[in-house]
Each structure stands twice: as C-alpha cells, then as structure tokens.
Write a structure and sequence with these properties.
Oligomer: single chain
CATH superfamily of one domain: DD-peptidase/beta-lactamase superfamily
Protein name: Penicillin-binding protein 4
Structural class: alpha+beta
Organism: Clostridium disporicum
Pfam families: Beta-lactamase
Number of helices: 14
CATH architecture of one domain: 3-Layer(aba) Sandwich
Order of helices and strands: EEHHHEEEEEHHHHHHHHEHHEEEEH
Keywords: Signal
Strand content: 5-15%
Shape: globular
InterPro entries: AmpC-like (IPR050491), Beta-lactam-related (IPR001466), Beta-lactam/transpept-like (IPR012338)
Strand order of the largest sheet: 4-3-12-11-10-9
Helix content: 25-40%
Radius of gyration: 21 Å
Distance between the termini: 24 Å
CATH class of one domain: Alpha Beta
Number of strands: 12
Length: about 425
C-alpha cells in the first residue's frame, strides 16, 4: 500500500477581529519528499500581497484588516506513530456500545464506519431512512459540504494539467465581477476571499429582485430554509447576486468559511475543463475511486432528513447547492473515495500536500488539525463528518439523517468520540 505522508503546516494569521491557530505534525520522511513539500510551501510564501494598490482598495470600500505577516514552518516535526496493530477488538465493541447508546438516548439515525488502512473494522446502520424503511449500509445520504473536498481535488487536477493557476485572479473566469481582479483561486480554496456566503447568509448575499422574490416566497413558511429547493435558482442568478454584493474584508486578510467560494470553483472547473461539474466529477474522481452509487441527483430511495426539514427527501436544486454541497453518497462510496484520495490515486503528492497545508485550520476543501484531516456537512435534516487520521491510517465516517439535537455537531462529536475509543 502506498502511504501518503504530509507536512501539516502551522499557518498563523492574526487580525483585529480573528485569531485562529492550526496545529501540525509529521512523521520524518525522505529528503526528496520533504523537498516536494518545501517547494509547495515556498510557492505560497512568494505571494505576500494581493497586488492591489491601497487607493483602489479604498475606492471599493473594502474594510482593511491589519494582518501580521505569517511564516510557514517547513521543518518536519518528529511524531511517534501509534501501533494500530495493537488496537484490541474490544475497542470496536466499545464503538458499537457507544453508538447503541447514542441511538437510544438521542435517536441517532444513520451509519458509521471505522477502518484501519484498507480494512473496515466496524460498520453499522441505525434508525430509519424514512417512516417505514430502515437505514442500511447502502442507504445514500446528502453529504452537503463534504462535497467541497471533491471540488478542491478537481481544481488541483486542473492545476496539474496547467489549465488552472492557483495564484491567478478570478476575473479570468468572471470578467464582470467587480472584485475579480483582486481575488485568487487559492483564496477561494482557502476560504480567504472576503465574499459573503450565499447559503448561510442568503439575506445578505442576495441583492437582485429575482432572488429577493424567491426568499420572500418562503419567509412565512414553517421551514424557511426550504428555499434551497426552489427551481428558479440558476447559475446566472447566483452570479448576478455576486456582482451586487460587497466584500467583508480584503482578500487574503482573514479566514471566513463561505460556500460561495466553492460555488465559484465549480464554475471554474467547468470553464477550464469544458465539461459540466457533474461530468467532470463522475469521470475524473468517481470512476478512478471506484465510486458506483454516488451522484448529484436526489432519489426516492435516499434517506429522508429528520429534524429541521419537512417530511420527504431533500431535493435541493442542484443549480443552488452545486459544487459547495450537492453530492449524495453512501458510506462505502465515501470510504472508497477517502482511500483513493489519501493513497495517491486522485492527485499528485505535491497537490495533496498543498490541499492539506492549513492556514487558520483550513486547507483546500479540508479542515486540518493535529494530524486529523476532516470535513463536516450539514443540510436540512442531514449531517455528516469524514475524518482521516494520517498518523495511524485510520478512517472514520459518520453520516446521519437527523439534526434534531445538536445539528452539525452530532457527526463531528460522534467521530471524535469513536476515535477516542480506538486510539489510546
């Protein structure tokens, strides 16, 4: 098995309103591998500003943040591997006992999987996909923002093909966007663009009459967030709202999780590849990973969300959730994806190292902290969490069709608890 080693870098940025720290560690590898990693770090260090004159920033009324210059630590940190061969079977019995308790106490509904390397050690389904059909290990769930790791990997494939440049400004793809000349592809990937979030801050981002009309149609609805399913959303309408919105801060000046960044990355994938986003993901990510049931279309056989959403399968308009969160998958397909990605079957070592190099805890489509590479996803009635422990080659996946208790925290909490039970 080809192992992937990575320097998980500390990128420390301090601003007047935001201070976040990402921890990092690495097992010592060969000098050649370290040089690959250092080369990637050096490329990021070469970019010290946004090439924007101060007066042009003031003209755009972009709030200025005083950002202290940060440095990447390029020396590897010695970290002792835990001996996963010594993980006793009782550990997996504890996992099952924990999830059984969760199912009883808070009506946990969903699926969980634990694997060491290529070997699945534990997998079990809980609860109901709908009112009269139980969840199984092949039931599909909306994975929401876990889609972002697919989008980021697709961008890096195009970078490898010299079809996309991480440090090019996005006016190449969106010539009508006022701030396109000061935002880079890298800043979209790292959530450092300053663009408002069209999903979580719809009432801030949406400025066009058409979008406001759609939102108003749902305002008195018991489930206001059902507007994501409206058939009137289109890429053209989202871009129209983008052109009407202001920035929160100077691009590169701070971290702010934003779905709009990955929506735009999906459009860049289409322009750079000549394929639709769905076609590109199917051909270049799903097929190489051996993914067979995942897609970007909701089906009646999918699990139904319980909690904040109305009864029924979530059928978010794919034009709306798109590259930020529109994949439907089952737990085995997600495991296939994570193995293919982390084993080197999707992107090159250099691209992988860039994706998992964290600034303020976020890389490219992935959160990276203390050797754990992960992402969460939440949409009406669903939440999920994928974790890869790079030091111990452990994969943990939890997918739930319930957010009635703590919402996004459910799956993240469950994966951290499971990890604590098996890694001593």
């Amino acid at each position: 098995m080809k192992k992937r080693y990575v320097l998980l870098v500390i990128g420390l940025t301090i601003s007047s309103i935001l201070t976040l720290t990402a921890c990092s560690s690495e097992k010592t590898v060969t000098d050649a591998q370290i040089n690959i990693i250092r080369d990637g770090v050096a490329e990021q260090e070469e970019k010290s500003d946004n090439n924007v004159a101060e007066e042009s920033v003031e003209e755009r009324n972009i709030e200025q943040y005083k950002v202290e210059q940060y440095r990447f630590e390029s020396e590897p940190v010695e970290t002792e591997y835990k001996d996963v061969d010594k993980i006793v079977e009782a550990g997996y019995e504890n996992v099952e006992e924990f999830l059984d308790q969760e199912a009883a106490i808070r009506e946990f509904q969903g699926v969980a999987l634990v694997a060491v390397g290529d070997e699945i050690k534990f997998a079990k389904a809980y609860g109901y996909a709908d009112t009269n059909r139980e969840n199984t290990l092949t039931t599909r769930f909306a994975i929401a923002s876990n889609t972002k790791q697919f989008t980021a990997a697709a961008i890096m494939q195009l970078v490898e093909q010299n079809k996309v440049d991480l440090d090019e400004t996005i006016d190449k793809y969106f010539p009508d966007y006022e701030y396109g000349s000061i935002i880079t592809v890298r800043e979209l990937l790292q959530m450092r663009s300053g663009i408002p979030d069209y999903l979580n801050e719809a009432e801030v981002f949406m400025r066009s009459e058409e979008s406001l009309s759609i939102l108003n149609d749902y305002r008195n609805n018991t489930y206001f967030d059902k507007y994501v399913e409206d058939a009137r959303w289109s890429k053209e309408l989202i871009l129209k709202d983008l052109n009407l919105s202001d920035l929160y801060f100077q691009p590169g000046g701070a971290y702010d999780y934003c779905n709009t960044n990955y929506y735009l990355l999906g459009l860049i994938i289409e322009q750079a590849s000549g394929l639709s986003y769905e076609e590109y993901i199917n051909k270049n990510l799903f097929e190489p990973a051996g993914i067979v049931t995942s897609s970007m279309k909701a089906e009646e056989s999918d699990a139904k969300g319980h909690g904040s959403a109305e009864s029924g399968v979530i059928k978010a308009n794919p034009e709306f959730t798109y590259a930020a969160g529109n994949i439907y998958s089952n737990i085995f397909d997600m495991f296939r994806w994570m193995r293919a990605f982390h084993k080197g079957n999707i992107v090159s070592d250099q691209s992988y190292n860039q994706m998992v190099t964290a600034v303020d805890g976020y890389g490219f489509g992935l959160f990276v902290n203390d050797g754990i590479i992960r992402h969460s996803g939440v949409i009406d009635g669903f939440n999920s969490n994928t974790e890869y422990d790079i030091l111990n080659d452990i994969t943990i996946i939890v997918m739930e069709n319930s957010d009635a208790t703590t919402g996004l925290l459910d799956a993240k909490y469950d994966t951290s608890m499971i990890r604590g039970l098996i890694v001593k």
